[in-house]
């Protein structure tokens, strides 16, 4: 999808009793969480979902009429709800409908939507990896808390595409999170362009969540999410002093002891040229302090190699930082000049081979560190969330593994485990990326 194309858009018609409304809300929540836009009219919708009622004849008539209208106005219709349980009635009246499901069938509706209209993915600006959506495992979901960004990193054009930070009201975010938890989601991945900045644009305005006043701020949000009793994972957190207050929540087990902090570099001069947020913070000291409070903290980060003007010494300083920081997971990108980014005007552009060679060198350097971090887990008992089960065992993720970007835990005797459920395992081995484990006794 090009950046200019619109998001996939779903028209939604909801008929029937409060139970049907709850079903509609669940489906709408999932659609929004996956980046679909919801349209109140048929105009501009790529397809229409009709949630029907079949309680009395009049309701059947009304539902069949609504389906007919959606077909006439739009042409692509998925039917769900009570009348959907009588598929033959629907198909007799409207053989052209794309799919028919019964009530409480959010998952089937999502499958039908995916088959007709895959979710959008724009790799440059979307934070949701496409695989995460395509496979749609229902035990985790992305929770987007804001749009846009107030920073102007010199290598990035997101602010010019998406504008300044706009935080979603905390009540709306919490409602979506509660619905997802009720729908059986076991892990929420909090995402945005700059998660630590949540609420800055609305001056941390107080909202009301279940009648309780709550500030639109990351600490309050993390605390409230931590009460849902599921895994809460924070992505795209910049190392501001305010982040320190989150670490005790991690140590207490309220939210996952996991931070995705895109440091991008370690040289103060390069960070300044990059115009990175929190670039003047002493990140090594901060990491040490975080780990003193929460020794199990997993830190993931990304770095850019070969930024314009990066000297050999500055690159070496980056490797020294990695040695000191002992990060758990690291991704690296060779600098690539994005059209419209101000960094392209900087002097000292490096040849593509140098940028790439440094990237490879960094990744090889980090490999040992990541492996040692995993080795330290051998012999430990860890909680995991099960992703897949087959005759060879189970594939799961630990609290230190975000889906799609981090490693996996291979549970070699996990044939009896259930997908989407938590389990306790004992770590027996590791390689560069993954852990190997057995089901813990007493499971
Ligand atoms: S923080 Fe920087 S890199 Fe991230 S979206 Fe904002 S401008 Fe882009």
From TrEMBL:
GO (cellular component) term, any one: ribosome
Stored InterPro entries: Elp3/MiaA/NifB-like_rSAM, Methylthiotransferase, Methylthiotransferase_CS, Methylthiotransferase_N, Methylthiotransferase_N_sf, NA-bd_OB-fold, Ribosomal_uS12_MeSTrfase_RimO, rSAM
Residues engaged in binding [4Fe-4S] cluster 1: 17, 53, 82
Enzyme category, top tier: transferase
Matching Pfam families: Radical_SAM (PF04055), TRAM_2 (PF18693), UPF0004 (PF00919)
PROSITE patterns in alphabetical order: MTTASE_N, MTTASE_RADICAL, RADICAL_SAM, TRAM
UniProt GO molecular function: 4 iron, 4 sulfur cluster binding; aspartic acid methylthiotransferase activity; metal ion binding; methyltransferase activity; protein methylthiotransferase activity
EC numbers: 2.8.4.4
Keywords: 4Fe-4S, Cytoplasm, Iron, Iron-sulfur, Metal-binding, Ribonucleoprotein, Ribosomal protein, S-adenosyl-L-methionine, Transferase
Cofactor note (record): Binds 2 [4Fe-4S] clusters. One cluster is coordinated with 3 cysteines and an exchangeable S-adenosyl-L-methionine.
Residues the record lists as binding [4Fe-4S] cluster 2: 149, 153, 156
Taxonomic superkingdom: Bacteria
Catalysed reactions, semicolon-separated: L-aspartate(89)-[ribosomal protein uS12]-hydrogen + (sulfur carrier)-SH + AH2 + 2 S-adenosyl-L-methionine = 3-methylsulfanyl-L-aspartate(89)-[ribosomal protein uS12]-hydrogen + (sulfur carrier)-H + 5'-deoxyadenosine + L-methionine + A + S-adenosyl-L-homocysteine + 2 H(+)
GO biological process: methylation; tRNA modification
Cofactor: [4Fe-4S] cluster
Localization in the cell: Cytoplasm
Chief subcellular location: cytoplasm
Gene3D superfamilies found in the cross-reference section: Methylthiotransferase, N-terminal domain, Nucleic acid-binding proteins, tm_1862 like domain
Family assignment from sequence similarity: Belongs to the methylthiotransferase family. RimO subfamily.
Role of this protein: Catalyzes the methylthiolation of an aspartic acid residue of ribosomal protein uS12.
Protein name in the entry: Ribosomal protein uS12 methylthiotransferase RimO
Gene field: rimO
């Amino acid at each position: 999808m090009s950046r200019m194309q619109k998001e996939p858009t779903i028209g939604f018609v909801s008929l029937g009793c409060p139970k049907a409304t709850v079903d509609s809300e669940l489906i709408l929540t999932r659609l929004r969480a996956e980046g679909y836009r919801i349209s109140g009219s048929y105009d501009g919708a790529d397809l229409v979902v009709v949630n029907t009622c079949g309680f009395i004849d009049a309701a059947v008539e009304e539902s069949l009429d609504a389906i007919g209208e959606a077909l006439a106005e739009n042409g692509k219709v998925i039917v769900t709800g009570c009348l959907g349980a009588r598929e033959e009635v629907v198909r007799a009246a409207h053989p052209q409908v794309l799919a028919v499901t019964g009530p409480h069938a959010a998952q089937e509706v999502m499958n039908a939507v995916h088959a007709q209209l895959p979710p959008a993915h724009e790799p440059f600006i979307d934070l949701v990896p496409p695989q995460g959506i395509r496979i749609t495992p229902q035990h985790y979901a992305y929770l987007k808390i804001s749009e846009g960004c107030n920073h102007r990193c010199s290598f990035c054009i997101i602010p010019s595409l998406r504008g300044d930070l706009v935080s979603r009201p905390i009540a709306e975010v919490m409602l979506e999170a509660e619905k997802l938890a009720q729908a059986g989601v076991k892990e929420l991945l909090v995402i945005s362009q700059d998660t630590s900045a949540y609420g800055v644009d609305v001056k941390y305005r107080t909202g009301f969540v279940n009648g309780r006043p709550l500030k639109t701020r990351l600490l309050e949000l993390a605390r409230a999410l931590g009460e849902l009793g599921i895994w809460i994972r924070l992505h795209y957190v910049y190392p501001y002093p305010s982040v320190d207050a989150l670490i005790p929540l991690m140590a207490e087990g309220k939210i996952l002891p996991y931070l995705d902090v895109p440091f991008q570099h370690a040289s103060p001069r390069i960070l300044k040229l990059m115009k990175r947020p929190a670039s003047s913070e002493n990140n090594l000291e901060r990491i040490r302090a975080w780990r003193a409070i929460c020794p199990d903290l997993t830190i993931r980060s990304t770095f850019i190699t070969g930024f314009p003007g990066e000297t050999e010494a500055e690159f070496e300083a980056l490797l020294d930082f990695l040695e000191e920081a002992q990060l758990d997971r690291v991704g690296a990108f060779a600098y690539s000049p994005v059209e419209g980014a101000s960094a392209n005007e900087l002097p000292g552009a490096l040849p593509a081979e140098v940028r790439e060679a440094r990237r490879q060198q960094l990744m090889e350097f980090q490999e040992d560190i990541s492996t040692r971090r995993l080795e330290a887990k051998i012999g430990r008992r860890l909680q995991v969330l099960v992703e897949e089960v087959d005759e060879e065992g189970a594939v799961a993720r630990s609290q230190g593994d975000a889906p799609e970007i981090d490693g996996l835990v291979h549970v070699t005797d996990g044939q009896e485990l259930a997908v989407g459920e938590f389990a306790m395992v004992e770590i027996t081995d590791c390689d560069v990326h993954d852990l190997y484990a057995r089901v813990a006794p007493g499971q």
